[in-house]
Design brief:
This protein is an alpha/beta fold. It is built from 9 helices and 11 strands. It has helices at residues 30-39, 51-56, 82-85, 102-108, 123-132, 150-166, 174-186, 198-205, 209-215; strands spanning 2-6, 21-25, 44-48, 62-68, 71-72, 94-98, 114-118, 137-141, 171-172, 223-228, 231-236. Strands 7-2-8-1-9 form a 5-stranded parallel β-sheet, with helices on both faces. The longest helix has 17 residues, at 150-166. The protein is globular.
Length: 238
Amino acid sequence: MIIRTIPTHEDIESGRLAGQTVIVIDVLRASTTIAAAFDAGFSTVITVETEQEALSLKSENTILAGERHCEKRKGFDYNNSPTEICKKRHDGESLILMTTNGTKTIKKAELADHVLIGSFLNASSCAKKALAFSCDITICCAGTRGEFALEDGLAAGYMIHLLKKRTDPVHVCDFSEMLEASYLQLANQLPERLLTTTTGRRLVSKNYIDDIQFAGRLNRLNIVPFVKENRILPSVSS
């Protein structure tokens, strides 16, 4: 098995993902928000790239969440905020989600055989689910504004560490090895370390500290969101 990691959504070459399992990671905040949404009872998540597309899908049974550069959009019910979404139950509703980086990453990963949404919240379950497909694994970090995001890399490093322990033989690219080493060095500083990343500082300035702390919690959920027919559905890892 081969495990590789892509640093930002802009580095993804969609045509190279066929036959692979992809794990999309956007810790702050899209992948964390998606996992939290299913924990709050949403039945499906539909990712969109524009405000117009999101608003066109508004209906009695849908909730709109989204942001551009951390700011909630006009006409949306929530920011891209896991803690906001978790404040009430949304049993059976659909979440329409638009974000700056995460939804673009998911869209570019769609040519893979399997696309999972990973975060610190569900890292162990996500790694286990990915291995069950017996394919090479590519971890796609969303990044932030075209640059690598440390929080995504740390979550990827943690999953790489879990994957290496659970399967053999495995070939891991050099970038993945570096991310695993970074996670192991900083593991005892989570979730506080996330407050000081580039994205973390940006969210702190917008008073989203609760979201950052929430996003740094390890293995709180066994929900593994997966992409199917242009929407995201929940599965539960046993």
